[in-house]
Write a structure and sequence with these properties.
Blueprint: E1 5-14, E2 17-26, E3 35-43, H1 46-52, E4 69-77, E5 87-91, E6 106-109, E7 114-116, H2 123-144, E8 154-156, H3 162-173, E9 178-182, H4 188-193, E10 198-201, H5 202-206, E11 218-223, H6 227-235, E12 237-245, H7 259-264, E13 267-270, H8 278-289, E14 301-305, H9 309-317, E15 324-328
Parallel strand pairs: 8-9, 8-11, 9-10, 11-12, 12-13, 14-15
Antiparallel strand pairs: 1-2, 3-4, 3-6, 3-15, 4-5, 5-7
Helix pairs in contact: 1-9, 2-3, 2-8
């Protein structure tokens, strides 16, 4: 493997504080895995922000380069399934957690983590979708097994975030009627551009009665935040309704009665992009590149450079980003 100097966002621990700085590293120091990839684009996810501020539940050892997804070109490969110059995607597994991630211009990863770029996607589009969009795709896939467009409305929480915005785009493209829960009134026009027919303010949704079960209003839901919002979605589902959950920004706790599950036959489905079975990943990427591909994909992202990442990380931790934020490393 060649030794190439490259730029990366490096997070270091100094006197109990975590410092983020763009610096020069060398590919010689990357893990000795199968394939060296020159990264063209990555994307900013909430888990990246947690890694960048020293969350040991995400990243155990520092200094470290976050970035849980990457799209780029194979530079060197010792695996026969990938050749130099091939366009590829890496998303999930341990990338950006305890393995140097996509916020560096090069990564070196095991071949089984890599997927060839689908024909109908560019590298930029792949990262506009990214891990957040992949998570939205899993959520939609699992929800659509139980809830059909004719069953009723689907409610989405954390609607302006990466997962929520892509989920809304997919749902509306696949003819579901959607309702968004959001605390960002200024972004209501953005949600309407995704096809949302009704928006409920976060404060209004949180103020619902504390009864163990509420009036049935929704056929299904995609929750991205957890806590009381997830509880109220579950309590408001129609009989045989279903909700997926993939996030815990609000809370990791679920404090509620089992009545909605027993009396209405509700299904609560957990979603993890990191642990999604390898055998299903390529098929899901093909769907995201084709029939599920958001029609407004090029309208739901903001593009930044490596040097702008620290400021963007601060914003995502404060819940002040909308849609997808991608990082241009080319």
């Amino acid at each position: 493997m060649p030794n190439i100097a490259y730029k990366a966002l490096l997070v270091s621990e100094k006197d109990g504080k975590y410092i983020q700085e763009v610096t020069e590293l060398n590919t010689f120091d990357l893990p000795k895995n199968d394939v060296l990839i020159q990264v063209q684009y990555s994307s900013l996810n909430y888990k990246d922000a947690l890694s960048a501020v020293g969350n040991k539940g995400v990243t155990k050892r520092y200094p470290h380069t976050p970035g849980i997804d990457a799209a780029g070109v194979v530079a060197v490969s010792s695996d026969e399934n990938f050749v130099e110059g091939e366009k590829v995607i890496v998303s999930g597994y341990d990338l950006g957690m305890n393995t140097p991630g996509g916020f560096g211009q090069y990564i070196r990863v095991p071949a089984e983590w890599i997927f060839k770029l689908p024909e109908n996607l560019t590298l930029k589009e792949a990262m506009i979708i990214g891990t957040a969009g992949f998570t939205a795709g899993i959520s939609f896939s699992r929800l659509s097994e139980l809830v059909k467009p004719t069953d009723g409305k689907v409610i989405v929480s954390g609607a302006t975030g990466g997962v929520g915005s892509v989920a809304l785009s997919i749902l509306n493209k696949m003819n579901y009627e959607t309702i968004a829960v959001s605390g960002k009134e200024a972004e209501y026009p953005f949600l309407e551009s995704l096809g949302v027919k009704e928006i409920i303010s976060r404060s209004e949704f949180l103020s619902l009665d504390k009864k163990p079960i509420l009036s049935a209003k929704y056929a299904g839901g995609i929750d991205t935040v957890g806590g009381p919002i997830l509880e109220n979605i579950v309590k408001s589902l129609n009989p045989l309704g279903a909700v997926t959950t993939c996030g815990s920004v609000v809370s990791t706790e679920l404090n509620m009665s089992v009545f909605p599950f027993i009396l209405r036959g509700i299904s609560l489905i957990g979603v993890s992009a990191q642990n999604y079975p390898t055998a299903l990943r390529a098929k899901l990427w093909q769907k995201l590149a084709n029939e599920w591909k958001p029609e407004n994909l090029l309208e739901i992202y903001n593009e930044i450079k490596l040097e702008e990442l620290p400021a963007a990380i601060e914003l995502i931790l404060k819940g002040k980003l909308k849609g997808r934020t991608i990082v241009d490393l080319s």
